[in-house]
């Protein structure tokens, strides 16, 4: 495995993908695949992948994403059209954790990309490899394989790319484009209101209505900003200038009625407080539901169904384990019974085997002793014996040479 990493060229550039299963670090081969890397970096800077899903998961093969429509047929490149493949001899589909461009054919690259989950030699020279997943974030990438999928390899609860962050930009000349999102159009300008003009000529009594309107306008001009009473407007001698109620009487009446009104005021205040309390208790949970609606849906999507599925699988595994354990116990008991029956050999066989081995040992020991006695002890006799053996060996060699020659 180390040889594979040595053969790969050095990387230049790094991007962090924040996904629903955890962060994924992607290092780029910007020198070997400059077009694909520039396209990927600029789309990340523009937030093109934010909120997109991984729409295809083939277990033991690839995980594909990068389509804003989520169908697998969308996506655009920064060049305005599909760009060419960039095949490099040192970049090969020989391990997991590689990042490559997805396409529908030759030279048809846009915005979609995929991660490899295993060696995929069938994709060699068909797709552009432009990056690799590094560090411990490889385990987060492997989590993408655990999602439940249907018969078309489409996830039932697809994981998302929450956001992207360019940690090391290999192309400092990139300027992100300003892309207007839906609903951010220019606000419509308000039309100025035109004051209506009354046309009295259309009415049969238009002249009278126009005269009345003029009189009302003159009166309103005179008394605008002034509050007048009947004493000011009319010159009637019957009207007196004295106030109808004196200030002292008003104070006395207030004090006398204050005791009676205080109880009623308290009752009203209590009723108002109760009503306000009811409204508050009803309104607070609505606000909480509105604010936490999205989080609850996300938990349902990514947590609840998966937990239920895992629980169901765990129960099935427990049942299988119990059944296997019972079978093993029964087989073990049967084998023990059979071995007990078979372990009753006659004693004579054991005695014969022992005597046979003992006799063989004694024979070997006797042969060793006889050969040892034939060898002379150290001295002239032993030297003569070695010389005779050497002479015999020489004669043998000469005879062999004569036969060959």
Automatic annotation (TrEMBL):
One of its GO terms (biological process) is protein folding. The keyword Phosphoprotein does not apply. Residues 19-166 form the PPIase cyclophilin-type domain. SUPFAM superfamilies: Cyclophilin-like. It is found in: Nucleus. Residues 251-273, 282-292, 321-355 have a biased composition (Basic and acidic residues). GO terms for molecular function: peptidyl-prolyl cis-trans isomerase activity. The keyword rRNA processing does not apply. Keywords: Nucleus. One of its GO terms (cellular component) is catalytic step 2 spliceosome. It holds the Pfam family Pro_isomerase. InterPro entries: Cyclophilin-like_dom_sf (IPR029000), Cyclophilin-type_PPIase_CS (IPR020892), Cyclophilin-type_PPIase_dom (IPR002130), Cyclophilin_A-like (IPR044666). Residues 250-309, 321-380 are annotated as: Disordered. Belongs to the cyclophilin-type PPIase family. Part of the activated spliceosome B/catalytic step 1 spliceosome, one of the forms of the spliceosome which has a well-formed active site but still cannot catalyze the branching reaction and is composed at least of 52 proteins, the U2, U5 and U6 snRNAs and the pre-mRNA. Recruited during early steps of activated spliceosome B maturation, it is probably one of the first proteins released from this complex as he matures to the spliceosome C complex. Component of the minor spliceosome, which splices U12-type introns. This is Spliceosome-associated protein CWC27 homolog. It comes from Cuerna arida.
